[in-house]
Amino acid sequence: MKNRLTIAIQKGGRLSDQSKDLIKKSGINFSTKGDKLLAKSNNLPIDILFVRDDDIPSLVSNGDADLAIVGENVLIEKTLFKKNNTVKVLDLGFSKCRLSIAAPDNKKNMRLANKKIATSYPNILKKYLSDNNINATVTNIHGSVELTPYIGMSDCICDLVSSGATLEANNLKEIKVILNSQAVLIKNKKLSKNKILIAEKVINRMEGVINAIESKYVMLNADTKNLKDICKLLPGSESPTIIPLEDENKVAIHALCQEPIFWETMEQLKNKGASSILVMPVEKILN
Ligand code: PRT
Ligand code: ZN
Prior knowledge:
Elements: E1 5-10, H1 16-25, E2 38-40, E3 46-51, H2 56-62, E4 67-71, H3 72-79, E5 86-91, E6 97-104, E7 116-119, H4 122-131, E8 137-140, E9 156-161, H5 165-169, E10 172-181, E11 183-188, H6 193-214, E12 216-223, H7 227-233, E13 241-244, E14 250-257, H8 263-271, E15 275-281
Parallel strand pairs: 1-3, 1-4, 7-8, 7-9
Antiparallel strand pairs: 2-3, 4-11, 5-11, 6-9, 6-10, 12-14, 12-15, 13-14
Bound molecules: phosphoribosyl ATP and zinc ion.
């Protein structure tokens, strides 16, 4: 039985760079040469498989890949009405987008009943329509979905949106978000004992990298009398470290803040008498 873990990622597309980056930051070294489908890690028993994103859910479900990074929209679309062996293990926080129904600007108040909706996500759309008791026709199309209302193929569309620029350029108005999506880490539910150990190591490391992205390590000095107020202002910090200073009325506070620190927070800290406020990036967290 093969003891190396296979991680599938998108070969070329919106998810590729950040997927590779996450794998590298998790301490899995590999190099990609040319157009190869597989890269072998030289420091861990792991292979990276480069494929089209649409193939990822079935590769994981069939056990050809053990872990994978894919958009949650693709995961749901490909597994919705099927028995499968995949399970989501982590939200990865990148490639955020939404699957939305959009109609031409001049028909933005249209009711969906009895309309024709074009989409590359027929399963998710059908589920939305049936959950909401809407009787509409779903037309499946790959690519250029936004043009279909203008060539008589559809009344409205259901497509991925991130900035909204594509909808705007095609005079389409978003009328309903039916799914919010981002890149997710998935795994096969039935990994062998040997693979579970290495998969858990990868999952914990990736979680550590993801948690660190928003986290900051904050150091500041404060008057002892303001200690409680200042600690309350530190977002997402569980139990700050308080260090006495030579001046008995002052302490240093060190805290791991697991939420972003905005300028406003720093200004509020300063108003409470904090000084020498340092906000530093965190590279990895192992809880
Ligand atoms: O070749 P392969 O099959 O592997 O790739 P693909 O062409 O099918 O997918 P790709 O690389 O385009 O997208 C991969 C994943 O990125 C998607 O499944 C989503 O999870 C995620 N993602 C995030 C997006 C977008 N944002 C996005 N904006 N995928 C597609 N779009 C498209 C959308 O379809 C529309 O055409 O971008 C356009 C809208 O963008 P805005 O910014 O104009 O709103
Ligand atoms: Zn695709």
